[in-house]
Structure formats: structure tokens, C-alpha cells
Amino acid sequence: MMWFVLLIVQPLLIHAGRAKLHRTIGKVSYVLGPLIIISLFMIGKSGYGRSVGVFPEQQNLAIMVLDIRGFLSFALFWALAMFYRKDSASHMRYMIATGILAIGPGVGRGLIASGVEFTNALTITDVADLIIVGFLLGFDIYKKKNYKPFLVVFIVFLIGAVLWQVRDSAAWQSFAKSYAAMFY
User: Fold this and answer.
1) What CA–CA distance (Å, rounded) separates 69 from 175?
2) CA atoms of 122 and 125, how far apart (whole Å)
3) What is the pLDDT of residues 29-87, one digit of tens each?
4) What angle do CA 157, 111, 106 make, to 5 degrees?
5) What's the rounded Cα separation, in Å, for the pair 167 and 141?
6) Radius of gyration (Cα) for the chain, nearest Å?
7) How many CB atoms lie within 10 A of CB 40?
8) Residue 31, Cβ neighbours under 10 Å: how many?
9) Residue 153 DSSP SS3
């Protein structure tokens, strides 16, 4: 929740002309970002551990795509936001991307609760994320702004969406099995 508080407060501070306070509060993200990355990794590890022996191995390895892409995407967007902290346009876009990552789980759970099958709900949220980022990318291109950050974000979301679609493939299953053996 602290991350979302930062995502809301920080742009308000910039808008209010409080850039110095924005930078001071932003230093929290140097601690909070890595903690979120570690937490996301541990959630994936814990979920996998609880599922072993309960669900078929192929299903466990397939579901790993969600956790792996979640923590790696957040880690990448956070790292890029910190790297580009002095380039406000790029920094802002990568920070926005960390917030967009949260849309999928919330909307996905809502769809599942309303009766949409699990795998379809995740496909729908992937498409929604791609539409949102595609719109932001298109807007930046149209306005002749720095579109490269949202292009990177779009590609990362696209790769994640493709991985979800190939989760039962031999290539993903083999990768996930090796990943689980190495890290879980």
C-alpha cells in the first residue's frame, strides 16, 4: 500500500511545485522498491511450495509465469525509474508502469468473482494492460514526447502476455522446472 501512496503523493508534490519534498520522500523507494521485489519473489516461492503435491506439476509450472513476470517486471520498471530519476519524463513513465502492474491482479480477481474462468480472466487483464500501455505509447508518439519508456513497458507487457499463452508449452515447462529447482 505504501507504494501506491507514493504513486499518488509524488505527482501531486510535483504539481504543487514541491520538487524538493518529492525527492526527499522519493528516497523511501530505494528501500521500498527492493522490499517489494523480494516480497513478490517470496510470494511466488511460497505459492509454488504450497502447490507442490496438491496440483499436477504441469499446472504448478504453468502458474509460475504469473509470479515470475510480476516480480521481474516490477524490478525492471523500478530499476529503470531509479536509473532515469533525473530524466523526469522517463522516470514518471516507468513509475506509472509499476502502478499498471497492479491492475491485472485486481481486475482479474474481479472477473473471476463474477464467473469468468481463471485463464480467460488473466488473458483479459493482459489485453487490458496492453491497451492501456498502447494508448499511452500512442499518445506520446502523437504528442511527439519521449515514447521510448512506454515502448519498453509495452514490450515487457507483451512478453508477459505471450508467456501466459505458452505456459503449457514444453519450452516454458522446462524453463519453469529449472527455475523452480534453482530458486525454489
Assistant:
1) 13
2) 5
3) 999 999 999 999 999 999 999 999 999 999 999 999 999 999 999 999 999 999 999 99
4) 55
5) 33
6) 18
7) 19
8) 10
9) helix
Helices (H) and strands (E) in the chain, counts: 9, 0
Cβ–Cβ under 8 Å, residues 7 and 101:
no
d(CA 100, CA 161): 14
CB 103 within 8 A of CB 132: yes
CB 103 within 8 A of CB 128: yes
**pTM strictly above 0.90:** yes
Q: How many domains does the chain have?
A: 1
Give the structural domain span for 91.
Answer: 2-183
Q: How many CA within 13 A on the CB side of residue 141?
A: 9
Span 97-133, pLDDT tens digits? 999 999 999 999 999 999 999 999 999 999 999 999 9
DSSP 55: B
Q: What is the pLDDT of residue 1?
A: 87
8-state DSSP, 169: S
Do the beta carbons of residue 26 and residue 10 sit within 8 Å? yes
**How far apart are the C-alpha atoms of 137 and 148, rounded to whole Å?**
8
Encoded amino acid at 29, one letter: S
Please check whether residue 49 is in contact with residue 181, taking contact to mean a CB–CB distance below 8 angstroms: no
Asked if residues 159 and 70 have their Cβ atoms less than 8 Å apart, the reply is no
